[in-house]
Aldose 1-epimerase
Amino acid sequence: MRAPTGEQFVLTRSTAAGSSTAIITEVAASLRTLQIDGVDLTEPYPAEKTPPFGDGIVLAPWPNRVEDGIWLLDGKRQHLDITEPARHNAIHGLLRSTAYRVTDQSETAVTLAATVYPQHGYPFMVDTTVTYQLVEGGLTVTHGLRNASTAAAPVGVGTHPFFRIGDVPTEDLVLRLNASTRFETDDRLIPVAENPVEGTKYDLRDGQRVGDLWLDDAFGGVVPVDGESVHSLTAPDGRRVELWQDESHPFVQVFTTRKFPKDGGLGLAVAIEPMTAAPNALNTGAGLKWLEPGEHWVVRWGIRYSA
């Protein structure tokens, strides 16, 4: 029986410094598992299941939400399919159920490609690629987007990984977020303002225990140092997993759920989602990238582990 996420691409790397493995799926190009020295750093899910809460999937050609699935292009309304019915939004792009094709593969890396074809709500053709590369102490992810249309195309990209550190209860991890602003939202999680986190419960720069957090929030003010911004989860024993994002990712979403399937039941999980554009960017323009015909855009993020 074929897995609902298609073919599973297994990456392995072994050196004197340690070993790592990752499994990437054909459908949605999701990061299904990542282990370093036998320690799970992402929330895994079985091959016979679809990604719970979008675990690890690529979000393109926009991340996050579009209010009512409607945006304006040259003064004309564009109507996207409503893919978050409970809040009447379009969410997380157009490739969530797309089977990617392999364009390059080695023992330690795989490059997958998928095309966004012109359709109602998004009349553009955009070729996308994503490369997962195991490196010492972690994983590097490279996204490429090329406008194959005859007019400028608006694009954004994100990813939806859930993190853990082995068997450490997620509640006991400390989340540090390199972000100085938070998007205040309405009850449909559409931004209405961007406010400083200083002096609020949303200031995660010095770290807060994940078990005390209830979040589905986008953050800005992500300031890179030496070309990258770093967020982290730290276990009580000092082990740490970091998510870094390059300068093309000025936003990050943090999502906690107490209903993530794990260990035969439901439990707490936390997603840290690097994003090149803010929620509702097709309407606000916040972080939206307009690619000229033939233009190719490359962005990167990755995961690091220290024991």
Summary: The chain has a mean pLDDT of 98. The chain has one helix and 27 strands. The radius of gyration is 18 Å. The chain has one domain: 8-306.
